[in-house]
Amino acid sequence: LDLESLTETEDSIFTFGSGSTPKREIGFSINKKTHNIETINLHHLYNSMRTIAKIDVEDFNIEGVTHDGKDFLFLNRGNGPKNRNVVIRVQGKSLETDFHLLATEFELPKLAGMPSGFSDATIVDHQLYFIATTEAGTSTYLDGEFAGSLIGSIHLDTMKIEFIEQISNHQKFEGIAFLQKNENKISFLLCEDNDDQISDCTLFQI
Could you give the CA distance from residue 54 to residue 114 in angstroms, rounded to a whole number? Predict the structure, then answer.
């Protein structure tokens, strides 16, 4: 199912398939109190995203989803042929039948001549903190040569990038979660995907 993203609302945890193939258009919601699991059919939502954002099927790959307390924000990873990095805001009562979409495209820097693409994001104080990785090739589902990871933020009021910088030239970070903050520092946990097909996972703090 290629469940690439995980986020939570006040009462539920959500996980979403990437949509990079028809079999990956399924998601799940888990009620925090009852632990009841419901399947979400994402076909109509993902088709609508492709239409609104004018993303070709071969460029569609949802790698990160987060929630701002009201709306979901889906991040399309730009590792397809046209390198389409797009943030799609989903407003409405239902992810299956009742929603409104707003799409914003972003141009991310290249590393070693390779394009970079969103890999995850989280929200803190109206800022969408994202990570991105660089990868050779134009497949949304096959791993390619790797050149590094970046971190940055997008202000949710202006939908403009506030900063972006490289944080590694050899680690492929594909998960980010808010840890803590004080007056002059904010900390996140990062999860590495080293593409070696083993089950071990290393967490980093930045």
Answer: 23
